[in-house]
Amino acid sequence: MINTHTGPQPADFADVRATNLAVVLRFVRENAPCSRADIAASTGLNKATVSSLVADLIDRRMLRETGLTENRVGRPATMLVLDGSPYAAIGLEVNVDYLTAVAVDLAGTELLSWRRSFPGATATPNQAVAAVAALARRVLNRMGKEARQVLGITVAVPGLVDVDGSVRIAPNLGWRDVDLAGDLAKALRDPGFPVLVDNDANLAALAEHRFGAHGGAENLVYLTGEVGVGAGVILDGRLRRGGLGFAGEIGHIQIDPSGPECRCGRRGCLEAVAGIGAVLKDTAPDATPAELEPEVDEVVRLAEGGDAATLATLTAIGANLGRGVAIIANVLNPEVVVLGGYYVALAPWVLPAAQDELALRSFAPDSGGTRLVASALGYGAAALGAAARLLDSIDSGRLPAHG
Amino acid sequence: MINTHTGPQPADFADVRATNLAVVLRFVRENAPCSRADIAASTGLNKATVSSLVADLIDRRMLRETGLTENRVGRPATMLVLDGSPYAAIGLEVNVDYLTAVAVDLAGTELLSWRRSFPGATATPNQAVAAVAALARRVLNRMGKEARQVLGITVAVPGLVDVDGSVRIAPNLGWRDVDLAGDLAKALRDPGFPVLVDNDANLAALAEHRFGAHGGAENLVYLTGEVGVGAGVILDGRLRRGGLGFAGEIGHIQIDPSGPECRCGRRGCLEAVAGIGAVLKDTAPDATPAELEPEVDEVVRLAEGGDAATLATLTAIGANLGRGVAIIANVLNPEVVVLGGYYVALAPWVLPAAQDELALRSFAPDSGGTRLVASALGYGAAALGAAARLLDSIDSGRLPAHG
Q1: pLDDT in tens, B155-209
Q2: Strand, coil or helix: B307
Q3: Residue B7 pLDDT more than 60?
Q4: Which of A231, A331, A363 is closest, CB to CB, to B264?
Q5: Which of A55-59, B2-6, B359-363, B377-381 has the lowest mean pLDDT?
Q6: The pLDDT value given to residue A102
Q7: What residues of chain B lie within 8 A of the CB of A22, using their CB?
């Protein structure tokens, strides 16, 4: 049945064949092993069209035939499966204290996951580009040894990224107007694949949508709990970026007009009242980026020991966070809001207060069905999502050049 | 060029033919008169497929051939245009003090626009269903005389509407759990067309997207300025409803923790600090729904005369409204936020303060490109959008039954 609320999106005019290739690819991804006849029956495409599309995808080594045949009356059918092995999608993340790299194949299977420390808060943009390029070259080298075609590289950055991959503002990296996509492509001598840059929350949301255990939720918001607090917004199964790509900037919405001053100059922003700085305001107000993780571990230790001051702080953080989540729930009504970053470790103490506040402030009954959960993907979510973005791109019909 | 950020949405598996019919219909809507060859060249569909799709649409009397031929080398081509005349889409609106009815043809041309007073705030749900059904029957009667096939009826309601067309809460109508879609279909003796119910802000947003002058903005938020304040959210060209259909409930987000109590029981909600009640709090705090329009006219008269107290009130309303708009801009980054309802008349005094606050509170530079404007569609926006929703449904491939 077609849901009258979220029916099919009409395809762009020029793109029907690409869309149909993607329909076949996605069908096999979800239903393999399956036959050409299965694809035709389920997609409404006629058999000749399906045969032509499948031939194209086999030629590109995105599908392959198996020796299996379907057990049924009539001529046995050759079965198809996804053939992701010749490909690699690479995701990188720049953060205030680390760089990460992830590579996955076409099926989403992880090929490598690396993390190295990096002084993001003090490095210049040029130093960052050099460090990211060096890490990318090491990953490319590895993929080359495995004879994989690289689908692209996406870099996750904690900041405003415009539609061209230029970083407009990344306050916690101290960047302004850095053409990271262009500079990185140059440093890699214009490789023959896309080099993209995107906001870290956006990419983590993609990772949760593709790999997270959220019951197929098609409306999902991811909240980063790093030095900054940002949101990645998925509605009707796709990332929503707004007009200039700046959607999801929830960190500087005012939660408490009488709250503390925020680094952005405003007062009582969500980031100021519920970010990691607020968590550590009593125990480690001057923590450097590299010290954040051990300091959060110390807060967890205190909370586990029942330290009253720590518990009170975390309850207050949870309530403030819940006010931000309630804004998201009222405006977007997602099935799930996923807390990432440092919130994951703090979830046992932060979540209950946040959930109470969400229920209290939600206009729809029962919080409009919005569940609030901690991410199970850990700190690698943004880099994993950076790789996932390249797979999404293929699922949407932008197939890699082949030959 | 395919924009890597907002590329094509893969079609639902079962729906490729319907989607392709819709692609052809939309192409002709935007490019008529055009030939079958034009359609094939621009959509990537092969010519045999286009001929089959066009034949189907002609059979349904959605397209027709004209005597025109394209001036070009080779065999002259028969040109196609939209044939909307045999159809009508009907939109109704229930509000606290009126009912409206609009009908448009397939091309969006207005066939009728009626408004009648109705005691929405005091009528029971049963009385409302009877009144809406009576109005619907009059419209159906008229369309029958014009020998038009009715594509459907959509009713706009100021409240939470679930995906089945049941009104969960409509506080200003005093409704809770009213199955308006079901009751209206019954009152109309189960007509052979869809009877839908939707939130008024959602539908007004659809009207602005289809008929408003917003330069093709694909990310647009409409704010109702009626007794309640709600939002309709269009992102990437489609209405976004969230998981249960409750997105856009911005009216009860807390703007000012020390603000006045809201009718919802919370404090300092956007509706309480920037809704029509706040506008009239000094001049007509006890206005009945029927008195709102003349009372707003009186406020406009005072403002035009330079009355200091009125100007101060409207500036404060504008600032509060701007805080709500800033939340929308930060979270969704739309190209445009459209103010509807009573805000239209008050725009000369409310808009400047709202724009200042938006600029101040927007994290992205230059308000992230979000423009704040007053609607040019007037009070009929929701009913017009109710009709537009049926056209959108057709553009998405849900063609009416024919025979």
Answers
A1: 999 999 988 889 999 988 999 999 999 999 999 999 999 999 999 999 999 999 9
A2: coil
A3: no
A4: A363
A5: B2-6
A6: 97
A7: 10
Contact at CB, B7 and A12, closer than 8 angstroms: yes
Asked whether the beta carbons of residue A247 and residue B196 sit closer than 8 angstroms, the reply is no
Rounded Cα distance, B258 and B271, in Å:
14
Q: Do A331 and B396 touch (CB under 8 A)?
A: no
Task: Break chain B down into helix, strand, coil percent, rounded to 5.
Answer: 45, 20, 35
Contact map slice: B 93-122 vs A, CB within 8 A: none
Contacts of A310 (CB under 8 A, 6+ apart): A283, A299, A302, A303
A61-67 own/partner pairs: CB under 8 Å, 24+ apart: A61/A86, A61/A87, A61/A402, A62/A25, A62/A87, A62/A106, A62/A394, A62/A399, A63/A24, A63/A25, A63/A28, A66/A33
**Helix (H), strand (E) at residue A87:** strand A87-94
Distance CA A366, CA B267 (A): 19
Check B334 against A242: CB less than 8 A apart: yes
Query: pLDDT tens digits for A193-235?
Result: 999 999 999 999 999 999 998 988 999 999 998 888 999 999 9
Taking a C-beta distance cutoff of 8 angstroms, is the pair B230, B249 a contact? yes
**Chain A residues touching B335 at Cβ < 8 A:** 242-243
ipTM for the complex shown = 0.88
Q: Using CA atoms, how far apart are residues B358 and B22, in angstroms rounded to an integer?
A: 38
The shortest C-alpha distance from A296 to chain B (Å) reads 27
Q: What is the phi/psi pair of residue A129, to 5°?
A: -60, -45
Q: Which domains does chain B have, with CATH numbers?
A: 13-82 (1.10.10.10), 87-204+382-395 (3.30.420.40), 213-376 (3.30.420.40)
**Chain B touched by A236 (CB under 8 Å):** yes
- Closest CB to B8 among A15, A27, A233: A15
